[in-house]
Amino acid sequence: MSIARVTEISSTSEVSFEDAVQQGVARATKTLRNVKGAWIKEQKVEVEGGKVTKYIVNMLVTFVLDDE
Q: What percent of the chain is modeled with pLDDT above 90?
């Protein structure tokens, strides 16, 4: 039997939502073992001077806990 845990993280990019997701997952896998997936909970942007300056994603990352 496997037990999984979910943790919420935020990631930003000046390029795109996809880049923000990629950066978030890459960073999560540096700290968390057995990452199996991510669910994008929210997407938003920051705007300055009428232009999008940052893409922000909040995601739920699922990882399987190690057996003892």
A: 93
C-alpha distances in Å from residue 39, one per residue of 7, 19, 50, 57, 66: 10, 15, 29, 10, 21
For the full predicted model, state whether its pTM sits above 0.85: yes
Domains of the chain listed by start with CATH number? 4-64 (3.30.1660.10)
Q: How many angstroms separate the CA atoms of 48 and 33, rounded?
A: 37
End-to-end CA distance of the chain: 12
On whether the CB atoms of residues 25 and 64 are closer than 8 A, the answer is no
Phi-psi label, residue 48: left if phi above 0, alpha if psi -120 to 50, beta otherwise: beta
